[in-house]
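pinned: reference chain
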Amino acid sequence: MSTSRMESKSDTASGAYAAAQGYATVQDAIARCRSYRKDHGLYGVVDPALGRIMLEIGAVGAVVMPAPLGARVRERLSGGPIIAHPRSDRWTFLTGPTDNSYMDMTLFADLFRVCASVALPGSRIVLPSPTDERGGYRLWIAPPQADFRPELAEVVTATKACA
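pinned: its structure tokens
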């Protein structure tokens, strides 16, 4: 058998393996997404190309900040849910529904100074999937407890106080 034929068999086998891994990744994400919906009222959708669980901001709000500030805010609030992004050293606090506070320029400036922000309605955040957790991309610092989420204003107030 020629070398080119051996390479093509090897490429086919590795391609099949990658496809199976991709399928398993998406299936794991779908199962986790169902759990988020059923158990926590987090109505995300799975991006089939990446196996990521995407959540649109609106009914659920989010405040993103550097991890050291997030640790102080967590102590003040004593609750979650909170997602860690270890590679960027940032945390995302999930909150109750978003409101119009994102349009307050004074609030925007206060948060901007400490590298924090309120996620805009219609934007998307990524919830931890099994693949994210294994790879260290996204982890739960404080996983969701039923459908509890602190109010957006409560997280913003704590963020400003801890800054």
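why pinned: The chain has five helices and eight strands. The chain has a mean pLDDT of 89.
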